[in-house]
Amino acid sequence: xxxxxxxxxxxxxxxxxxxxxxxxxxxxxxxxxxxxxxxxxxxxxxxxxxxxxxxxxxxxxxxxxxxxxxxxxxxxxxxxxxxxxxxxxxxxxxxxxxxxxxxxxxxxxxxxxxxxxxxxxxxxxxxxxxxxxxxxxxxxxxxxxxxxxxxxxxxxxxxxxxxxxxxxxxxxxxxxxxxxxxxxxxxxxxxxxxxxxxxxxxxxxxxxxxxxxxxxxxxxxxxxxxxxxxxxxxxxxxxxxxxxxxxxxxxxxxxxxxxxxxxxxxxxxxxxxxxxxxxxxxxxxxxxxxxxxxxxxxxxxxxxxxxxxxxxxxxxxxxxxxxxxxxxxxxxxxxxxxxxxxxxxxxxxxxxxxxxxxxxxxxxxxxxxxxxxxxxxxxxxxxxxxxxxxxxxxxxxxxxxxxxxxxxxxxxxxxxxxxxxxxxxxxxxxxxxxxxxxxxxxxxxxxxxxxxxxxxxxxxxxxxxxxxxxxxxxxxxxxxxxxxxxxxxxxxxxxxxxxxxxxxxxxxxxxxxxxxxxxxxxxxxxxxxxxxxxxxxxxxxxxxxxxxxxxxxxxxxxxxxxxxxxxxxxxxxxxxxxxxxxxxxxxxxxxxxxxxxxxxxxxxxxxxxxxxxxxxxxxxxxxxxxxxxxxxxxxxxxxxxxxxxxxxxxxxxxxxx
Length: 657
Hints:
Layout: E1 5-7, E2 15-18, E3 23-26, E4 37-42, E5 46-52, E6 55-61, E7 69-74, E8 83-84, E9 94-102, E10 107-121, H1 147-150, E11 161-163, E12 167-169, E13 172-179, E14 182-185, E15 190-204, E16 218-220, H2 224-230, H3 234-237, E17 242-244, E18 247-252, H4 258-270, E19 275-279, H5 280-283, H6 291-304, E20 309-315, E21 349-353, H7 359-374, E22 386-392, E23 394-396, E24 399-401, H8 403-417, E25 422-428, H9 437-445, E26 449-453, E27 456-457, E28 460-462, E29 465-467, H10 468-472, E30 482-486, H11 499-505, E31 507-508, E32 512-513, E33 518-522, H12 529-544, H13 551-565, H14 575-582, E34 583-587, E35 602-604, E36 618-621, E37 632-637, E38 644-649, E39 655-656
Parallel strand pairs: 1-10, 2-10, 16-17, 18-19, 18-20, 20-21, 22-25, 22-26, 26-30, 30-33
Antiparallel strand pairs: 3-6, 4-5, 5-15, 6-7, 8-9, 9-13, 10-15, 11-13, 12-13, 14-15, 23-24, 27-28, 28-29, 31-32, 33-34, 35-36, 36-39, 37-38
Helix pairs in contact: 4-7, 8-12, 12-13
């Protein structure tokens, strides 16, 4: 459904140019090097934006119908933030989408205030082609061209700015604005390239679609970095609410020993979260749980508890009592996270620590998460600044794809730009596989961030080959890493033992550890390259550019990037919807991903307090005696009674009272 669009003032400058066969066409030199989309106004009644584009890159494109086409890309400092019209057979045109926070119940309109474009003629835009699956190489893909679009004498899309449907992500009701900087008339063989568009989104009256209902004025403190990353106006829309640290729910089979569950609960509680442990028999006394019962329990906790859970950690494999919810035959815990609104955006971050009923394996997986945060390995401090980027370029007949390698090279570039000193690479392409040695040597040397894009199976990377047996043979070096292996089936925890399960399970306590505490991957074996790439980009962009360090939140940022990249493919049955459900996280959801060498902190506080005193000052300093701002301090009095349980962040002087 398209919401109301009003054209208020449109200033057009239809200078006509002839397309070059290949090359860069700079149409607005003043727009080079500036932010593509900037917020101009922001209140609770409207949000304004300014879109600026320097021009386009035009290149020849090959197609199976033997006709010469051109492809169009926007000239931008951040090309990874552009999406495209991805409907098979439609003209493949660039777009730029942005989620915007909107009032809880308001109706929404978009109004174009001004726009400038230039016309380029003698151009035939290539139609969008079906995406091949990552599980298969050299698969014939038929050519797609929608003649109902290509035979119309009109510009497509009809409007340069449109809105999608509202969605809810816990405390935020949002709507997606989409800028189409290029319109195409296939009969006239012309494109309009918009270099300047100013528009505003107005909030009036009451809209019936996906309203946000609040119980109080509290919002999730832990989600604030994610909110600010998702929308540019989060602070304005949430200014009237109080950020507090929400709850942490552990759902565990009765078979898992209490001592192990309590170890995780205690650590998360000390980090400031009110923790609830729910055994299978707490959800259903007979212990025979259905997925609907688990969902209802989580939904009720979100809707009624004083501290609604922000994070849910499901302990145990799906055959140990706590089933997955599933999605269209795929293994998935994502539905458990969708407890507010009628969309598929997460409102709670849910991660499964998928372990068997073996006490030693359960203990290892739990303590890997605790050790990573609480007592990180410092025998080789520089390992925290090393990474591994691996990929397999996939060649589909008639549609070669080189983007898996380019995507992981982008990850490497981002890591290096943010202080990493070494990011190893290993790539397979066009029948060449370098084998396992490069990846194994890198992992044995120690890397804290691992990214893989390519083809795969539940038990392996497809190339460069790396299987669960190879993981078994890795050194027990205690150098744990976070892996994002975004390919077919690597996270398919419905099969024992999948690649991701092996990653979080392996190692021997107390100090013979390997693998890592967290894994991000797909539970299905039919993912698609052009959808997997933006998930990878959004995941790392969230961590490195936006400071979204909690593991499950960062994984959700990957899905949000997918949503923004393909805004015309959000409905039921689309691949965007499907991949929201089938990309899942394994490990511990709240885990804070490290992006630098851990530093020691010195905390100063009074050893005793006078009777009746209710104020206490805590001072936190880091290396070199520098005060640490935004350090979270939690005060607990009484281990069992908890007469006091309060926390907060330090100010610029490293103090909190």
